Amino acid sequence: MSKHPRRRRAQQTPNLTEAMMRIEKARSDGDVDLSLEKLGLTELPESVGQLTQLCKLNVSRNQLTRVPEFIGQLTQLRELKLSSNQLTALPESISQISRLRTLYLTNNLFRGLPEPVTRLTRLERLYLSGNRLTALPKSISRMTRLQVLFLGNNKLTELPESIGRLTQLQESVPRPQ
């Protein structure tokens, strides 16, 4: 039984090493785009929080169960990809990323739209397909710049009436009635 944890650690180490190398390269080069996709990460390394110049961050297809509070320090982000993880909530600090335009949350374990997301009033594209959403909050109406809203493959039985206030909405699945 003691061999199994060693084998598991050995499998994660190259991916964590790869992640740290990419983070260090982004830091030293001043990169504005960072992909940590498909590295099997169970948590986001703290050093990502120091990359305040980032405009795009992709941490999709990992095994994240939470997003750390330091995500709010990445105030230059315009696109954040958190798809295909095991997320059930987002930190309050995500609402501090006021420049965020596109947020991918597909294929996670959300049962409801995290309230901090509704405070991202400049968000234009929100992808929530493939979760366990049963309802959307009325506060979604705050997101007046939303143009794209994907909600397919959830457990929604109805949409709030307030979704009608999203007058910029051009593409949505399912379509509001």
Layout of SSEs?
Blueprint: H1 3-29, E1 33-35, E2 56-58, E3 79-81, E4 102-104, H2 115-118, E5 125-127, E6 148-150, E7 171-173
Parallel strand pairs: 1-2, 2-3, 3-4, 4-5, 5-6, 6-7
Question: How is this structure best described in words?
Answer:
The chain has 177 residues and is an alpha/beta fold. The protein has a single domain (3-173), classed as Leucine-rich repeat, LRR (right-handed beta-alpha superhelix) (Alpha-Beta Horseshoe). Helices cover 18% and strands 12% of the residues. The chain contains two helices and seven strands, in the order αββββαβββ. It has helices at 3-29, 115-118, and strands at 33-35, 56-58, 79-81, 102-104, 125-127, 148-150, 171-173. The chain has a seven-stranded parallel β-sheet. Helix 2 links the parallel strand 4 (102-104) and strand 5. It is globular. Residues 1-12 have low confidence and may be disordered.
